[in-house]
Design a protein that fits this description.
Blueprint: E1 3-4, E2 13-17, E3 20-29, E4 35-40
Protein name: Cupin domain-containing protein
Length: 61
């Protein structure tokens, strides 16, 4: 079940993603380790091509 975070629970936090410092603000979280948020990246940052271990796939049929 998806849970939207109320405005008072949304806040910017520092995190390190593969040695890249950034700020994140989670907006909602759901089942199966799915979440959505906003991210502030350093100016001029380019994220190299990559794949996520978990991703969504549309089922056939």
């Amino acid at each position: 079940m998806t849970r939207y975070l109320p405005t008072e629970e949304q806040c910017w936090t520092s995190l390190d993603v593969r040695a890249i410092p950034m700020q994140a603000c989670r907006l909602w979280e759901g089942d199966h380790n799915v979440e959505s948020g906003l991210y502030r990246l350093p100016a001029g940052l380019t994220i190299p091509s990559h794949r996520h271990r978990w991703h969504l796939r549309r089922r056939a049929g």
